[in-house]
UniProtKB/TrEMBL annotation:
One of its GO terms (cellular component) is membrane. InterPro entries: AB_hydrolase_1 (IPR000073), AB_hydrolase_fold (IPR029058), AB_hydrolase_sf (IPR050266). It comes from the Archaea. Keywords: Hydrolase. This is Alpha/beta hydrolase fold. GO terms for molecular function: haloalkane dehalogenase activity. Its EC number is 3.8.1.5. Residues 20-255 form the AB hydrolase-1 domain. It holds the Pfam family Abhydrolase_1. It is an enzyme of class 3 (hydrolase).
Length: 275
């Protein structure tokens, strides 16, 4: 892996292959390894770039006392500038999909294309009355859970709270994929876990009106219904959107159905003529 110096830390990234740039942004409490099935598939024809977002993986903690999706997007911009990439195709998973959406909101026509896996616009995935979010924040309870049980058990509790309405296979239908996700959580400290959660919870959906970047939204059939609804909203809001739902897949759809996901992404890239 390579590293990029930030004002308050170091961002780790990896670049594999040559060709048009595909940039992958992972989900919350994960790392760049979440995209390994895509790296192996696309590196023959593309310059594939993965990164570990602040607080995650080898990047780990930074000195920022507060994380935001805006800050994560700033880091993505720094990386693109460092690598001299002007027209990327961006792929985001879960939290990473928020980062990609924020980038599209800032630059409606700069990216060649965007792929949003497990796409979510807000957490919780439902519209709340204006100004009410701070009063409904579960952060105090989360902080208590983190101090008593640690990141892995707290992450499991978050999954259980979602599984109560969607079923036990919400995160992934594959036990090996779920185990890998839990192992990635072990790399996240208590303080970083909280900062990541607060970045997700505080984020208000980006305005995608007028975004002309071709956008592909992909969900698993076991995805939470409210999240699927947000995916439909994304497709209806952008000028050039398309959406797939794959059966036998959960939130981590790119890992549950790697062949189908890669095929759909490859067809999308061919359609928008990335090369």
């Amino acid at each position: 892996m390579a590293e990029l110096s930030l004002d308050d830390g170091t961002l780790w990234y990896e670049r594999t292959g040559e060709g048009p740039p595909l940039v992958f942004v992972h989900g919350g409490w994960m790392n760049g390894q979440a995209w390994q099935p895509q790296v192996e598939h696309f590196a023959e024809d593309y310059q594939v770039i993965t990164l570990d977002v602040r607080g995650h993986g080898r990047t780990g903690p930074t000195d920022a006392t507060r994380y935001t999706i805006d800050l994560f997007t700033d880091d993505l911009e720094r990386l693109l500038s460092h690598l001299e990439i002007e027209r990327p195709t961006l792929c985001g998973l879960s939290l990473g999909s928020m980062v990609v959406q924020e980038y599209l909101s800032r630059y409606p026509d700069r990216a060649t294309g965007a792929v949003l896996a497990g796409a979510v616009r807000s957490m919780p995935p439902v519209d709340l009355p204006s100004g009410m979010k701070p009063f409904l924040s579960p952060t105090p309870a989360l902080a208590t859970a983190l101090s008593l049980t640690g990141p892995r058990t707290t992450f499991r509790s978050l999954l259980v709270s979602i599984q109560g309405t969607t079923g036990e296979q919400w995160l992934s239908v594959d036990p090996a994929v779920r185990a890998q996700a839990l192992e990635a959580v072990d790399d996240v400290s208590r303080s970083e876990f909280r900062k990541i959660f607060e970045a997700l919870f505080r984020y208000d959906p980006s305005d995608l009106t007028g975004v002309s970047t071709p956008t592909l939204v992909v969900h698993g059939e076991q995805e939470a219904p409210l999240v699927k609804g947000q995916g439909e909203a994304i497709v209806s809001e952008v000028d050039n959107g398309q959406r797939f739902t794959f059966d036998n897949a959960g939130h981590l759809v790119n890992q549950d159905r790697p062949v189908a996901f890669n095929d759909a992404t490859g067809a999308f890239l061919d359609r928008i003529d990335v090369a």
